[in-house]
Structures are given as structure tokens and as C-alpha cells.
Design brief:
By secondary structure, this protein is an alpha/beta fold. It has helices at 40-48, 69-74, 91-101, 106-119, 135-147, 165-180, 192-198, 216-222, 228-235, 241-252; strands at 2-11, 14-24, 29-33, 55-60, 63-64, 76-79, 153-157, 184-188, 201-206, 209-214. The structure holds adenosine-5'-triphosphate. Adenosine-5'-triphosphate binds at residues 11-12, 14, 16, 34, 36-42, 190. Residues 2-232 form the ABC transporter domain.
Length: 269
């Protein structure tokens, strides 16, 4: 489970999170969504212990991240937005390296590495240097590395970067399967349709505050029906994107401006 209670953080003297609270039960997937700059990555940095809150409490896998950072780190796997892996390694070497850091025995490392690489269709590339890997292939290795020690909690920051349609489906199936087996999944993303399809719980963040928490159905109902994307637009009070695009094109190309607001000529049918 994950519990974040009344967390406040300032960075360089600027308050970024203003009393953020939410709970994610074991066996569920939480989608953490919010506009650019809302504070999603800052929250993940708190969950991983990379950042210490100025106030409040952060518990991951039942362990207080500030009080016992070493034990907390054993409880989660983390897929960062811009993950770094040692590209001169092969996937087999890299996953073994990560597994050894977690003190797994060699037999467990072999079994888990083979299973993960087979799942992602990377068995044939298992012993190739990752230097020439595509972004998606590297992302699959990063997800595998986050899971190699079978953590009770999985933290993902925009995990779908570079993944093709099939890999997106696989990721969704993997997250749902992990949740069904009792793991806790925390999934931060801008991709609302992806979140809608996988999450039991959606936490909507805006300007460093949780403005809504509920199932995808509850959030869309609160937003007046439609898709999670529509509800998100209303909840986060973002301007009508089609109106804004109209004004941009008009202003940038000298065809007038604000009077076009509301016409939304390019609007999808
Ligand atoms: N080191 C820092 N010093 C000062 N402000 C920072 C620092 N890091 C982030 N911020 C600010 O904190 C706010 C939240 O940033 P954060 O990266 O958590 O947002 P986010 O929701 O992950 O955004 P995005 O969706 O664009 O990745 C932003 O306004 C950002 O400018």
C-alpha cells in the first residue's frame, strides 16, 4: 500500500505541494494525473525517498520513507520517466546486476530474467549490447528491472514512452495482473486514456493540490460524463484547446485573433 498524508514540499523556497493526501490500497492500480507542472514527478520523488517532505508522512509498502529509507527502497520498484540504463550491458547482464543489488540468488535472477525478456519478446536480444536498442526496447528492460526483485509496490512515471501499441497493451495487462496478485501500482501519466483503462483509483492533481480522487467512473461523472479526458479538462479548468488553437493560428498568421474564440473550426466531429 501507499499512504501520503498532508505532504508539503517547497523547492528553492517555492511551495510545490500544498498538503497532498491520498491512499492506494494493496491490490489496486492508482492513476496519478495532472497538467504539466502540477507536481506529479515531485510526488514520485517523495515516494522514492529522493526528496524529503517539509511536512507530512509518506508510507510505501507499509514503511515510512523518511524514518526507514533503506527498508522503504526494498519495497518498491521504480520506472522513471527518463530512465538510465548501462547501455553497454546486455539485458541479461543488466537484470543480473539489478538482481544482485537486491541480493537475489543467481537461480532466481536467471528464472526472472528469462521470464521478463520472454514476456516482452526480447529473448533473442537477451545477450546483445543495449547500445543499439530502440527506445521501446530499453523501456521494456527498465520495467523488467523495476520488477526483478518482485516488489510489493511499483511506481511508474510516464511508463509508456516509446512503447508501441502491443507493448502498451502488454503493460496494461501486466499492471492489472500485478494488482490482481496483491501488488500496489502507482501510475503517473498525462495519457488519460491509458490511465482510464488501467486504474481502479484516479487521483487528480492541480497546482500541487489533490482536487479529486475516485474511480475513473466517479471522476467522469463528476466532470459531467463523457471521457476521463473531458472530465480532466473541466476539473483542471484548462481552456478549450480548440479555441486556443484557433487564436494561436489567427494571431500567429495575422488573421485577427480573440474574436475567433468559440468557433473551434478544427474541432473533431
Ligand atoms: N528543483 C526545482 N526547483 C524549483 N522548482 C521546481 C524544481 N523542480 C520542479 N519544480 C517546479 O515544481 C512544479 C512541479 O513540477 P513537477 O515536475 O513535479 O510537475 P509534473 O506534474 O511532473 O509536470 P510534468 O507533467 O510537466 O512532468 C513545477 O512548477 C516545476 O517548475
Amino acid at each position: 500500500m501507499i499512504s501520503v498524508q498532508d505532504v508539503r514540499v517547497a523547492l528553492d523556497g517555492t511551495p510545490i505541494l500544498h498538503g497532498v493526501s491520498f491512499d492506494v490500497a494493496s491490490g489496486s492500480v492508482a492513476g496519478y494525473v495532472g497538467p504539466n507542472g502540477a507536481g506529479k514527478t515531485t510526488t514520485i520523488r517523495l515516494l522514492t525517498g529522493a526528496l524529503t517532505p517539509d511536512a507530512g508522512r509518506v508510507v510505501v509498502g507499509g514503511v515510512d520513507v523518511v524514518a526507514d529509507p533503506v527498508e522503504a527502497k526494498r519495497r518498491f520498484g521504480y520506472v522513471p520517466e527518463h530512465g538510465h540504463l548501462y547501455e553497454s550491458f546486455t539485458p541479461t547482464e543488466y537484470l543480473a546486476f539489478v538482481g544482485r543489488m537486491h541480493r537475489l540468488d543467481e537461480a532466481a535472477i536467471r528464472v526472472r530474467t528469462a521470464a521478463h525478456l520472454r514476456f516482452w519478446g526480447l529473448s533473442e536480444a537477451a545477450d546483445q549490447s543495449m547500445t543499439g536498442f530502440s527506445k521501446g526496447m530499453k523501456q521494456k528492460v527498465l520495467v523488467s528491472a523495476a520488477l526483478v526483485h518482485d516488489p510489493p509496490v511499483l511506481l511508474l512515471d510516464e511508463p509508456l514512452g516509446g512503447l508501441d501499441a502491443h507493448a502498451v497493451l502488454q503493460t496494461r495487462a501486466l499492471l492489472r495482473t500485478l494488482a490482481a496478485r496483491g501488488r500496489t501500482v502507482f501510475y503517473s501519466s498525462h495519457l488519460l486514456d491509458a490511465v482510464e483503462k488501467v486504474a481502479d483509483l484516479v487521483v487528480v492533481l492541480r497546482d500541487g493540490r489533490v482536487i479529486q480522487t475516485g474511480s475513473p467512473e466517479e471522476i467522469t461523472t463528476l466532470g459531467g460524463g463523457g471521457s476521463l479526458e473531458d472530465a480532466f479538462g473541466k476539473l483542471t479548468a484548462s481552456a478549450d484547446a480548440y479555441d486556443e488553437a484557433e487564436v494561436l493560428v489567427a494571431e500567429a498568421f495575422g488573421e485577427g485573433g480573440a474574436e475567433l474564440r468559440g468557433q473551434g473550426l478544427g474541432r473533431e466531429k
